[in-house]
Design a protein that fits this description.
mainly alpha, AA/rel_permease1, about 0% strand, about 70% helix, about 600 residues, amino acid transmembrane transporter activity
Length: about 600
């Protein structure tokens, strides 16, 4: 009895829903072209990171080597983008990492992914709110905070007077959100704003190469003395100078932070059911938008560090301030105005993905049913927007920009890793529409197909995936994810490895041999021959490399970020095991059928 109960419990955790039929190709709601999707991806990706985060990373993490940080973060994003491109071609349904995880590796991981994304999206809204205030106050010479402190200091504590502006502007932006929920020309405005962003950033890049000084990439201690920085007690540590002033460790931490700047292309696959020819336009939109963003970030970071010595960019500095250093004051206001428009467009659309994700999870029974009305009720969308519009400024008050960025990045890195795992598993699975068909297929193949031998493991007898080969890949992929995580934990202690400690080196060698052997087993299994417009090349290496890079960047996060992540996950798992696992639609259906 206990064994059966545990088996049913385990089946619930990994139960996968059947795939629903996608929207027909000739449906009139499919009106988004590849250009629309590229504009959406670039418009939502280019924002806070390039304007505000660059100063944070340059000042105390990477210096001029922020260029390398963007390249590493871009590599991780491109690998993840390739995985998303295949999974959207294979599962042409509007959704997110939550949906793709649900139909591939089961309910528990889907809940973890969805819950994580909810917190990450709220943190993202808080990031944009804080950046908007920073830019607006900087444009007006910080008069907002000064006026509030002088006018209400007699009535509230100084801390509240300092940060009340977050709540004020949060409410204003909330009203703007309510007025634009059903804007019929959303994509036209998106393309216009995206074009304006690229023009402004193109101006920054050209200006940087005109007014830049290559010596700013080769600074020494003598330059600090000449600049009057003998007493650096009020500044962050200046590092050792040169192109990599904070060493390899600084590049790793900077890359983990810079990863945030590439988050945004998820808006493309959330519009799959509105895209024309989605199996072609969605993969192309993802890849092209990521490539454009990588070029923009590389150019802007190069221009910024060439125009301004990195030690003059303090945390909180925004990109337009670079023009004050080179004496181009009019350009400062032009770039700052473009920055404001860019962030405003991000805020206007930031609430919708949160509401959609909560609605989907509640509709699947994983969250409370009242939340399912968040998209369908008359007043529920307004109430939801009010709640999230207040939550974001509260988070912006109690957490710094870097804290919010790292929290958002950690959630996205986990989701991207799971999607890469999903791609690896799906490519080796037999065709199935639902669990009943899969059971019938297993039954037809008979007991002989269920027998696993060493020869059959390395030299499968079938040229097409079978239920047994699919399970082999499922188990091997799970083991690889675990081994890659352990390898990243060990490699995070790279100073010890460089010291030549034989114990740590032996551990790395054993992990590498296990990873190589299991990867070889997966490589020998037959792949699905389903025709797709896009497939990840060099399987299984590309998804595994994506998982490795993502997990290694996760290991660079601070202990505070992991603590906040742990608290949020404890709350989520408590909700899932007390409510979600009992009321999930698929779980209840499976119990009834049993």
């Amino acid at each position: 009895m206990l064994r059966q109960a545990l088996r049913r419990f385990g089946q619930k955790l990994v139960h996968r829903p059947p795939l629903k039929e996608p929207v027909p190709e000739d449906d009139p709601q499919r009106r988004l072209s590849t250009l629309d999707l590229v504009a959406l991806g670039v418009g939502r990706t280019v924002g806070v990171g390039v304007y505000v985060l660059a100063g944070e990373v340059v000042s105390n993490q990477a210096g001029p080597s922020i260029v390398i940080c963007f390249l590493v973060a871009g590599l991780s994003s491109v690998l993840s983008g390739l995985c998303y491109a295949e999974i959207t071609a294979r599962v042409p349904l509007s959704g997110s990492s939550y949906l793709y995880t649900y139909v591939t590796i089961g309910e528990l991981w889907a809940f973890i992914t969805g819950w994580n994304l909810i917190f990450s999206l709220v943190a993202d809204t808080a990031n944009v709110t804080r950046a908007w205030i920073l830019a607006f106050a900087n444009l007006l010479g910080n008069q907002i905070s000064q006026t509030l402190r002088e006018s209400i200091l007699l009535y509230v504590p100084q801390v509240l007077a300092e940060y009340l502006v977050f709540f004020v502007v949060g409410l204003v932006l909330l009203l703007m959100e309510l007025q634009t929920l059903n804007h019929s020309r959303f994509f036209l405005i998106t393309k216009v704003i995206t074009l304006m962003k690229l023009l402004v950033l193109g101006f920054v890049i050209i200006s940087g190469f005109i007014k830049g000084d290559l010596h700013n990439w080769m600074l020494t201690e003598d330059d600090y003395i000449m600049a009057g920085l003998n007493d650096t007690s009020s500044l962050s540590p200046l590092g050792s100078g040169g192109f990599v002033p904070f060493g390899f460790k600084g590049i790793l931490h900077g890359a983990a932070t810079c990863f945030y700047t590439f988050i945004g292309f998820h808006n493309i696959f959330e519009r799959v059911e509105e895209a024309q020819n989605p199996q072609h336009s969605v993969p192309m939109g993802i890849v092209i938008s990521l490539f454009i963003c990588l070029l923009v970030y590389f150019g802007v970071s190069s221009a910024l560090t060439l125009m301004v010595p990195y030690y003059k960019l303090q945390p909180g500095s925004i990109l337009p301030e670079a023009f004050l250093h080179i004496g181009w004051a009019p350009a400062y206001y032009v770039v700052a105005f473009g920055f404001l428009c860019s962030l405003s467009s991000s805020l206007l659309g930031s609430m919708l993905p949160i509401r959609q994700l909560i609605h989907k999870m509640a509709r699947d029974g994983l969250l409370f049913p009242v939340l399912a009305r968040i998209e369908t009720g008359t007043y529920a969308p307004i109430v939801a927007t009010v709640i999230f519009g207040i939550t974001a400024p509260v988070m912006a008050v109690f957490f710094g920009l870097t804290d919010l960025v790292n929290f958002r990045s950690l959630g996205s890195l986990l989701a991207y890793s799971l999607v890469a795992l999903c791609v690896l598993i799906l490519r080796y699975q037999p065709q199935r529409r639902n669990e009943e068909n899969e059971a019938e297929e297993q039954e037809e193949n008979g007991p002989a197909a269920e027998r696993l031998t060493l020869q059959g493991l390395l030299f499968p007898g079938s040229s097409t995936p079978t239920p047994l080969s699919g399970r082999v890949v499922y188990v091997c992929s799970s083991l690889l994810a675990l081994l890659l995580t352990l390898l990243c934990l060990v490699l995070a202690q790279w100073p010890v490895l460089l010291s030549g400690d034989p114990v740590w080196i032996s551990v790395v060698m054993v992990l590498l041999m296990l990873i190589t052997g299991i990867t070889g087993v997966i490589w020998r299994q037959p792949q699905s021959s389903s025709p797709l417009y896009f497939k990840v090349p060099a399987l299984p290496l590309v998804p595994l490399l994506s998982i490795f890079v993502n997990v290694y960047l996760m290991m660079q996060m601070t202990a505070g970020t992991w603590a906040r992540f742990g608290v949020s996950m404890l709350i989520g798992l408590a909700i899932y095991f007390s409510y979600g696992i009992k009321h999930s639609v698929e779980g209840v259906g499976m119990a009834n059928s049993t």
